[in-house]
């Protein structure tokens, strides 16, 4: 009977063998983790020291290739307590491979398998839940990205996005039933890539009402409100952002107006602050007219406009890219 190892590589690095666990903090060596991950990814192959050197050190010089033997030795010392009676890493001449008698169950491969099954299954929603609950974050987040991790993370994100979309469609009339699933996504989707992609996909399908309902679930646990500022500092902020050469997100300015008598300006502003959350900035320009600065990755334009339109009567707006408005006469007059 072969030994069985459970590998967790989504959001962490963890080896479980015979009820003992070795995690990244125990190993505390990025190179050792990268070596083990590479051997696991190619566990049905024999990798020579030149191939390992190219993947681990970015080159195949003799000195780098010769360093592999030292790295293998150090890695084996780090994990020998877990595998006291079993050789995890084997070698023949200058080639290295994992012990073929050890069966490895890796979480990312299980996720891929569930995603493949979901394409043809009649019980897609069950598999979709399993995919999402299996997702604990990106593949090996503690390591620097390379072409391998980028490709794997792309496949992981696609699987999770497809699964979430399946659940949203299945529970369209009762979205509260997947609130725990949504909370799980929000917890592990730090860059909001999954959330924004699903919202965008709903918009492409013209499911705007459903889009807003999903958006409200995403934002339910987020108590960070928009920041209110004066017109003067709002204008200066727009100009400072425009001067930055690198901006991880595209910023937009939305000019919003309402023609209504139900709310005072203070009440209207308070409602806006609760709708426009996270890293947005808002200032009041004239009565019932507001300027909002927000990042496109926080929420798509169509989502925010839909929410604002429901806030009060007589809604109208226009939006601008930050480079269009940073030095406009209108902003300078704030």
Model description:
This protein is 50% helix and 17% strand. It has a five-stranded mixed sheet with strand order 8-10-11-9-12, sandwiched between helices. A four-stranded mixed sheet has the order 3-2-1-7. A hairpin with a 5-residue loop joins β1 (3-8) and β2. It is of the alpha+beta class. The mean pLDDT is 80. The chain contains 15 helices and twelve strands. It has helices spanning 24-27, 30-41, 49-57, 62-79, 107-120, 124-134, 147-170, 179-188, 193-204, 208-218, 231-243, 265-275, 301-309, 322-325, 329-332, and strands at residues 3-8, 14-17, 20-23, 47-48, 89-92, 95-98, 102-106, 227-228, 251-257, 281-286, 289-295, 316-321. The chain is elongated.
Defining key terms:
5-stranded mixed sheet; 334 residues; single chain; elongated; 4-stranded mixed sheet; alpha+beta; 15 helices
Sheet with most strands: strand arrangement: 8-10-11-9-12
Strand content: 15-25%
Task: Characterize the biggest β-sheet.
Answer: 5 strands, mixed
Helix content: 40-55%
| Rounded radius of gyration (Å) | 26 Å
Order of helices and strands: EEEHHEHHEEEHHHHHHEHEHEEHEHH
Straight-line N-to-C gap: 75 Å
Shape descriptor reads elongated
Q: How many helices in DSSP terms? A: 15
Q: State the low-pLDDT regions, or none.
A: none
Secondary structure: number of strands? 12
Task: Calculate the mean pLDDT score and round it.
Answer: 80
Class from secondary-structure proportions: alpha+beta
